[in-house]
Amino acid sequence: MQEILDASTPGDWRRLDPKNTVYLELDAGRVVIELAPGFAPAHVGNIRTLAHAGYWNGMSINRSQDNFVVQWGDPAEDDKDRKSLGKAKAKLPAEFERKAAGLDFHALPDRDGWAPQVGFAQGFPAARNPEAGTAWLAHCYGMVGAGRDTAADSSNGTELYVVTGQSPRQLDRNITMVGRVVQGMEKLSVLPRGTGPLGFYEKPEQRTAIKAIRLASDVPKKERTALEVLRTGTPLFEELVEARRNRRDDWYKVPAGHIDLCNVPLPVREVAKK
Amino acid sequence: MQEILDASTPGDWRRLDPKNTVYLELDAGRVVIELAPGFAPAHVGNIRTLAHAGYWNGMSINRSQDNFVVQWGDPAEDDKDRKSLGKAKAKLPAEFERKAAGLDFHALPDRDGWAPQVGFAQGFPAARNPEAGTAWLAHCYGMVGAGRDTAADSSNGTELYVVTGQSPRQLDRNITMVGRVVQGMEKLSVLPRGTGPLGFYEKPEQRTAIKAIRLASDVPKKERTALEVLRTGTPLFEELVEARRNRRDDWYKVPAGHIDLCNVPLPVREVAKK
Questions:
Q1: What is the pLDDT of residue A272?
Q2: Percent of chain A with pLDDT over 90
Q3: What is the pLDDT of residue A274?
Q4: Contact A147, A71 (CB under 8 A)
Q5: A174 CB neighbour count, 10 Å cutoff
Q6: Residue B252 and residue A112: Cβ atoms within 8 Å?
Q7: Which of A166, A223, B122, B141 is the most exposed place for a label (fewest CB within 10 A)?
Q8: d(CA A116, CA A120)
Q9: How does pLDDT run across B215-271, given as a tens digit for each residue?
Q10: pLDDT tens for residues B52-111?
Q11: Residue A93's closest CA among A20, A41, A133?
Q12: B21-30, B125-134, B137-146, B245-254: the lowest-pLDDT one
């Protein structure tokens, strides 16, 4: 894989857009999330508003369930104790799917069990149903979703989770996905597992404090993390996928000839600041 | 799922065999591993010999690579500094596959991309090629394998890894799998990620000490962890798989109608000691 990346040209990479980039600031450092407005415009809009207002600052990561997700948000159990949403909307539509029309979707060569087609769109692992004309984001490692209650439209973007375990693809089309962690997953994946139901921490002091969640565009340029993500719709990316489908190094005795969507790496690199 | 387990009878469960059970003792507590002699008899034989002799006691977990594996063994880099294998064999055959004949294999209803058939055998996630008449264990979360160098037969069971990330099924049939963590995964999955190549720790003090690795049959009965594992070849287990293929609770709006091998839970319970 490194050989392929070494052969990449500047055009194979894209710079993260600060308006679509969120920094989750922990004592352990920064986690960088790329938002997916192309799939969840209403949720991303709310997340931008909430981050801009400092909604999550001083809140905490309240849940870490082994082989599943970590999750943060307002830990208050009673509605009356919850922090005000300020200018953010209290109610959003469910954004489980979008129209496939107009979406630049690059399908993987291999069949998937969960969806008619899988591949990448706008840099995210995604799925598509050509018959229904729909597309949606897939629950791969590092993907970020908006927690909800039983009603499909009960998420407002305040309660966010990150996949830290075996891809729970059964959640696809059941919940609104809002983006992906592009740097810092190892700060979330090591969080002690909560011992309460669903991996929630039983004692407040077990939670991990959130110093701040900020939109990169609200952060002074010199404090931003300058990241580039490999484009997914290029010949180079196809070459990378093929190199992972059939490993060519001497260590592998039986190349798989296959790859699952969530096994495809999505390279990210830091770039020198100007 | 809990409803199905609540309806189980004692015959739906099997007690772990102490001769096939290994305890990895850490400061954080005990990790319980079930060995798979039906798939890797030579490696399991060596692991029993090594554990019996206390080979790993005082060694360490030397590697934690995010979304991939943790790994332990002798951290010595030079062969001359390595601990003696004692009565264990220095050389073992590669045990990547076994004959499918004679193996009680229960296939899942869904197609898999990595293998002609997948399902469960002897309680482990496994795959089968009916044409070739072969079967092998699958790299799902919690599965344990024997690290090797480039030569297929270069593993001896001293260097063991546990899958902590998205199932790296490309490793199937490329490395000998020896068992599965049945309890205590959350003690391994939270280990800080190593910052060296492949997630190895760069400083010795970053490693996690191994107090002991013991065969349960070498441990006094009252100190054993009494565990039962749900049998995988039963009508109850099929019911459980179906309940996970199509979630019936109100939360799910679009049941997947599918499950991947590595998404099937393998329930374990502690039983009261007599």
A1: 78
A2: 96
A3: 57
A4: yes
A5: 21
A6: no
A7: A223
A8: 14
A9: 999 999 999 999 999 999 999 999 999 999 999 889 999 999 999 999 999 999 999
A10: 999 999 999 999 999 999 999 999 988 899 999 999 999 999 999 999 999 999 999 999
A11: A41
A12: B245-254
Residue A273 confidence (pLDDT): 64
User: What does the buried/exposed string (b/e) look like for A91-125 if buried means 16 or more CB atoms within 10 Å of the residue's CB?
Assistant: ebebbbbbebeeeebebbebebbbbebbbbbbbbb
CATH architecture of A19-76+88-217: Beta Barrel (2.40)
Averaged pLDDT score across all residues of chain A: 97
Q: What is the mean pLDDT of chain B?
A: 97
Q: How far is A27 from chain B (nearest CA, A)?
A: 15
Cβ neighbours of residue B221 under 8 Å, at least 6 residues apart? none
- Residue whose C-alpha is closest to residue B179's, from B61, B48, B25, B14: B48
**Nearest residue to B35 via CA among B208, B130, B119, B160:** B160
Residue A135: how many other CB atoms lie within 10 Å:
25
A258–chain B nearest CA distance, Å: 6
Chain B residues in contact with A253 by the CB 8 A cut-off are 96, 152, 173-174
Return the structure tokens found at A12: 């194979």
Residues near B164 by beta carbon (within 8 Å), at least 6 away in sequence: B64, B67, B68, B69, B70, B141, B185, B188, B189
Q: Which fold has domain B2-74+90-249+256-270?
A: Cyclophilin (2.40.100)
Residues A126 and A121: their CA atoms lie apart, in Å, by 6
Task: Work out the minimum CA distance from B25 to partner chain A, whole angstroms.
Answer: 18
Extract the tokens encoding B21.
């059970």
Q: Is residue A216 over pLDDT 80? A: yes
Q: Which of B175, B245, B254 to mutate to test the interface with A (most CBs of A within 10 A)?
A: B254
Question: How many contacts does A have with B, using Cβ atoms within 8 A?
Answer: 116
